[in-house]
Each structure stands twice: as C-alpha cells, then as structure tokens.
Amino acid sequence: MKTRATALVALSALALATGCTDAEPSDGADGSPEGDALADSRLDEILDSGTLRVCTTGDYRPFTYLDPGTEEFTGIDVDMARDLADDMGVEIAWVRTSWDDLMEDFLADCDIAAGGISISTARSEQVYFSSALMEDGKTPITLCENVDDYRTIEQINQPGVRSIMPSGGTNEIFAEEHYPEGELIRHDNNTVFDEIIAGNADVMTTDASETLWVANEYEELCAVHPDEPFDYFEKAFMLPLGDEALKHYVDQWLNIALNDGTWDGIVEPWFGEDVEL
After folding, report:
1. How far is CA 181 from CA 93, 98, 153, 161, 249, in A?
2. Overall pTM > 0.85
3. Is the N or C terminus of the chain more exposed, i.e. has fewer CB atoms within 10 Å?
4. Which is it for the CA torsion 142, 148, 151, 153, positive or negative?
5. Percent of the chain with pLDDT strictly greater than 90
C-alpha cells in the first residue's frame, strides 16, 4: 500500500505541475490527451509486475561489478538501484550488458540502466536521464612515479604513449578524440589497471571518481589531478525516453536518497571518509 500511495502522490504531483487535471483536459501536440503519458508510464508496468529490470555492465568499479565467483553484483549504483527497488516495493532483475551494447540492451530489455553512466547529448537523443547522482570529469591515472609525465592532453597525445581503456563508452570516445598521435590499447575493464602496473600500458584517462577509487585500492597508482579534470559531465541513471512519470518518481526518490544519508552510506565504504563525490 505504501508503494502504491507513493506512486499516486508522484503522479498527482506531476499532473499538477504540468497543468493536467480531470477538470480541464488538454491535448498534446499530436491531438492525444497529455494525460496519456501518465497512463502509459513504465512505472505502472514495474509496480504491476513486481520487477524492476536494471541494465548494468558489471565491470566498472566502484559503480558496478559482477563477482565471477559468486555471480553477485556489487557497487555504488548497484546498491542505489536496490534502494530504488525497495522504495518501489519490487524485486530487481539484473540484465548484464557491455559498454558496446548498453544502449541496444537498454532499449530492448530494461526499465533503467545503472553503473557510472555519463550523461551525454548523444545518449540523450535516445533516453531520458534521471537527476544527476554526481559531477565528474576525465582525468589521467598512472604509476605514481610517472604523474608529472601525464598531466596534460598534450603530454599523453604523443607517439609511444600507451593509453589503455575498455572498448565502448566515453573513455574510448575521449581517447580517440584527444590522443590520435598516441597508441590506444583496448582491454577488459576489470583488469585494465593491472596492465599499467605490469608495464603493458602507460596511462588511462577515465572518470575522476574512478581514479580516486583506484588510487585507494592500488598503492602503485595515483590519480593525476582529479580535482581539475579535462572536462565536465554528470552521472545518472538512464530511463525510457518520454516517460515523465517514471522520471518524476526516480528523481523524487533520488533527491531524498542524496539528502537523507542513503547516498553517503553507500559511497563511504568505497572511498573512505575523506572523499566527497
């Protein structure tokens, strides 16, 4: 009953915000009532089925990781998705995907996608995004002894400099755009940092949040300048394009989670007390 009541409150608030009421129905641009967007929301399907289908790659710690031994997902966004499902009163059905197939799998099989996903205008052509979970930007990570060698794009974009990254996703896009003179190495995301330690790659340019976690996990590696990244973007959940009711629900839940200690409690074990995302 609590979940249904919460959903009804969210839908009612959205209806009031958009001016859609029973007393004065209005038509959308295509001639159909604007209220149809609420009636056709994926939110109702999730509540009726009792299942939230979540796409995630499982290879991007600290946000999403699939343990090959236990076959269990862990990570910041994994735990946040579990909290969302609990708020809805439903179970989660995980859909394993890859960065190359993320968009295709999401559009075909999922209600949301989670796992350190960056907001981009290209992705926004096909999906909605929730409100941002955090701000981020691309920054290098390398052996601590080599930090001064890879502070700038110009230093990394040199013949002989080996930049490593997973295929698909924004790290590959950034490297292809900014390091055309360097050597680009594509590698499995779960072991990509081991390749730098082993001497098989020189540097990786990735999200500052990831470099902070890696630096906390590997004493050999240092984030170069996580407080001054090369660019700026935000991370969020992917949602179905045009589904205002589901987006409204997720945004309201997220606003509470970011301010009632839920987010802080989930993040702290991964980064420690001194890191703020």
Report:
1. 43, 27, 11, 9, 46
2. no
3. N
4. negative
5. 79
